[in-house]
Model the fold of this input.
Amino acid sequence: MARRTFIAALLVAAALALTACGDDDDDGGEEASGLPEGCTEAEAPPAKDQQFERSGQRLENPASVVVTTNCGSFTIELDTARAPKTTASFAGLVEQGLYDETLIHRIEPGFVVQGGDPLGDGTGGPGYFVDEPPPQDLTYTRGVVAMAKTAAEPPGRSGSQFFVVTAPADAGLPPDYALLGRVSEGIETIERIEGLVGPDGQQSGNAVIQAITLEEG
Done:
């Protein structure tokens, strides 16, 4: 009788242990993801090591692009009037699919969110560049979208990488970065992407551009 009681006690203890493990796994899964609400997990896409063609076709009508990410979507209204060369090049790269399945490789909360590198590490481009000096009165305020370049390159030079300004007011950048446009819808998506980086500077997951589509007229 004592032996049966002992075995029964062991079975109860084992059941409790399994239940506890299940609870820990559930809680740990939520903590491990650490993703902002509205973001889904995404693997870093493979690099696109290829050359792209420069478009010589300027956009005659108002145009915008819809950027779809694993944290939602946002719309960039292209400034075709003040940046005809830059917007034409960008639109051409959109139509060639350069941006589809690429990593948003730079997230600096309160400053910029940057993507558009086909290699995914901040060193890539389309295989050509465009020179178009930005308006001298341009200030990089929240929601402005501009093209990235290195410090060694001249003002207004761009390839494919672009950044969205997230600074509360002015990012304090000199007018050296080619203007692309402004986020007209979905700034909350940019905020969610920023939320992937915690106060300790650690990133909880990837932000991926799944597709960009051009809308004209």
Summary: DSSP finds three helices and eleven strands in the chain. The CA atoms of residues 144 and 182 lie 4 Å apart. The chain has a mean pLDDT of 88. The first helix runs from residue 2 to 33.
